[in-house]
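Q: Start with the shorter request: fold the first protein.
A: Done. Sequence, then structure:
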Amino acid sequence: MSNEKNGWLRESSGVSLEEVNSTIDVRNKKGFWRKLLAFAGPGSLVAVGYVDPGNWATSIAGGARFGYLLLSVILISNLIAVLLQSLSAKLGIVTGKDLAQATSASVGKKMSIFLWIITELAIIATDLAEVIGSAIALNLLFGIPLLAGIAITTLDVLLLLYLQRKGFRIIESIVIVLMATIFIVFVFEVISSKPEVSALFAGFVPRTEIITDPSMLFIALGILGATVMPHNLYLHSSIVQTRNYERTLKGKKEAIKFSLIDSGFSLTVAFLINSAILILGAAAFYGTKLDVTEIEAAYNLLSPTLGVGIASTLFAVALLASGQNSTITGTISGQIVMEGFINLRITPWMRRLITRLLAVIPAFIVTWIAGSKGTGELLLWSQVILSLALPFAVVPLVKFTSDKKKMGEFVNSLPIKILAWTSTVVIIILNVFLIGYIVVTGHDLG
C-alpha cells in the first residue's frame, strides 16, 4: 500500500495509518480461511444498514397488513443488494477510489454538489431511523420518554469517536456481536410465533398486486429503500480499501473474491433477519384486526399474542442493538461522501455531531407535536426517501463498473451488465410510479 493511499484512508474513513497497517494487513496471510478471516468485516458493516430500525417499521407494517405477501420484495431487494454491493466493492478495489470520488471526477462541480446534497439527505433519513429506533427501544425497556431518548442518542457521537480511536477492527467486532444478537433474538421470536409454513414459502413468490395496489407498493418501496440503501454503496467502496492487499492483478482478484464471500454471507444474515421480522409481524398480527403499524404496538402486543412473556423484552433489546449498530456506519458514510463529492474535510467529531443533529431536530419536533404515532410515520417515510435517492447512487455505480477504460479486465460481464441495468430500471420505474401516484391522487399511502 502506497503512502498516498494510506493517507487517503486515514483522511476519508477516520482509520489511522497505524491501524490500517497493524491490524488489517492481509498480505502475509496463508491459507483460505486465514485470508477470509482477514478480509472479513466490511460486509458486516454494510449489512448493518440492511437491518436498521427503518427495516423494522416497514417489515412489521408489511407483515401485519399483508401477511407473507411482501417476503418476495425482501428476497428481490436482497438479491439486488448483493449484486450492487459486490459492484461497489469491486469499484473500490480496482480503481482505488470510492463511489463518491469516482462520481465527482466524472461530473462537474455543480453536479457534484447536487449529488452530495441528495446523498446527505439519504444519510440524514438513515440517521433519523436510528435516532427514532433507539429512542423507542429506550422507552420500551426503561420507560425513558421519547423526547429524552432522542436527546440521549446524540451521545452516540461520543461512543463512535471512542470506538474509532480503538481501531477499525474493534468497530467491526462490535457490529458482528450486535448482528448476532439480533439474529438470535429473531430466531427465537419466529419459532415462538409458529408461522404457517406453506403460506410463508408462498410469500417468496412475487405477486402482481404488489405493483397494482398503491398502499402495498408504498410499503414495498419502503422495504426496498430500507434494504438497498444508497449510503451503503459509498461506504462499501471505501472500507474495502482498509485491507492492505497487494495492488497487483492477482491481489485485486483475490480481494474481490474474498470481499464477495464476506458481503454475501453478511447480507444473507441480513436477509434472514429482515424476513424474520416480516414473518413475525404476519404470524403474530395478520388477520387479528389489531392495528400494528408501529414498533411500539408490536412490542405491546407481542407477548400477549404469542403467549411468551419474554418476547416483547427481547424484541426491544434487538431494536436497541439495531439502532446502535446502524449509527456507526451512517456517520462514517457521511464523512466519506462529504470528502468524496466536495472535498470538504472537517474534524470527525464535528462531522458526526452535524449529521446527528440534522436527524435529531426533525425527530424531536415531530415527536413533540405528534407523539409516538408521528415518529412511526416519520420512520416509514424516511425509508421511502432512501428509495427515492437510490437511483442517484446506482446509475453511476453500474455505469463505472461497466466502463472498460475504468475497470480494465474487471469490467462487468454482459450478464452482470444486463442484471445491473435491469435492477436500476426497475428501481427507477417503481419510484416514478409512486411519485406520480402521490402527486396525481394526493392519497395518504401510509
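Q: Next, the second protein, separately.
A: Sequence, then structure:
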Amino acid sequence: MLDWTMSTPLSGSEERTWAMVAHIGVLIAAWLAMGFLCPLIIWLVFRDRSDFVRRHAVESLNFQISLLIYSALAAVLIFITFGLGVLIVVPLVVIGAIAALVVIILATVAASGGNDYSYPLTIRFIR
C-alpha cells in the first residue's frame, strides 16, 4: 500500500516531475497574473519531502515575484509619464515576456535532467 503522508520522501522520478511542474506550471496561472501560485503551492506541499523540489520551487517562486514587481514598476512608469512611458514599456514587456518564457523552459529542462537552475535578474525573497 502506498503511503502518501507528508513525511514520505519522493522518488527521483517524482522529484524531477514536481520540480518541472514548479517551473512550467506558472504558464497556466500566469494568465491571471498569479504565476507565483503554482511554485508557492509546490513549495508548501513538498519543501519537507524533497530538497531538490524545494530548491526549484523557491527559485521559480522568487522569479515570479520578481516579474510581478517589474510589472508593477512598469505600470507606475506609464502612470507617472502620463502614458508616454508606453513607448518604452511595451517593447520591454514584449522582450521580457519572450525572455521569461525562454528561461522558464530552460529551468524546466534543467529540472527534468536533475540539475539546478538559477533564473537571471531574480530578487531572492525566499531562501
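Q: Describe the second briefly.
A: Residues 12-112 form one domain. The chain has a mean pLDDT of 89.
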